[in-house]
């Protein structure tokens, strides 16, 4: 007697092979009934089904065998009659799924015209810091008028390819601008393209992007760090005035330090993350990078602020001060802590530790008090706490929800 493999309902259009197995015949009849049910549901939400034209439903009614396996996962022992009751109970929710699939998703308007741009050739991209070149001109006036900007390739720019450093996303072209892109253009900025980032931003180095390693602007034999590697390098090369970086675990601060530019990881939720590839909602940050503190402060004024509820990371009562007016050089009354557990670790380098301490103590000349503080849980337990949170959260967000 031949053994027949169960055929899913959506693959059951071919004529069934002859069989004298009553169970196989019953399965074929069941699959036929499910196909008819799926087509009927689809017809309900589309209005009228075109005769002879098959349109795959968004969600298919599970077979009794599939329901039985699901029930077993929850330690439920259901007979065929009970399984059919569950199947029947799914009809109305499934119709809602079909209708939802047919609705047109509203997209925010794209305000500023642009062309798709081009992928730079090696000759015009010797440090491999550019992922894509374009030129999008914004408002004729504003805080960023005339300043050139590169956008990290985790940030959606409508009509411009985005791959987040990974082959997984290669070929994706966003249909909308991230909120911060619109704000940059509204403020008169000129977007010159997208900068290379690490593969899915899962590295603090500069060699994991599928487009190749990003070379340090000062020494091409060295890393520029990451994951905002391209943004830092293009700033250090004076190819742009401003850059966007993203930071979940140092990805703005590290490449800024390794490239000799200024990078700022804003307070959580200060800058909206809307339209940017997430890693985990609890650690996602996006912020400004530039060659000077003044330009970082100016860019932060443009980027920061509430996004009308689109980004759940943001509280609605955000207040954005004029950061540039606060750059007085007077740090009187400010206390700066040097974290004891951040120095002298097994991966630390003595000359780097000394340089950081010396730089911090220079702030005393501006009126600040610099003191060593201790947070014992910072290292190594802080790292051990971060790893499970990041691994589980990133797996859930990037692979399960967005996958």
Tell me what the structure shows.
The structure is a single chain. The protein is α/β, with parallel strands linked by helices. Helices cover 31% and strands 10% of the residues. It is built from 10 helices and 8 strands. It has a 6-stranded mixed sheet. It has a two-stranded parallel ribbon with strand order 7-8. The longest helix has 25 residues, at 22-46.
Give a topology summary.
Layout: H1 22-46, H2 64-73, H3 80-89, H4 91-102, E1 130-137, E2 148-152, H5 179-186, E3 190-195, H6 229-236, E4 242-246, H7 253-259, E5 262-263, E6 286-290, H8 293-303, E7 335-339, H9 350-361, E8 369-373, H10 381-401
Parallel strand pairs: 2-3, 2-4, 7-8
Antiparallel strand pairs: 1-3, 4-6, 5-6
Helix pairs in contact: 1-4, 6-7
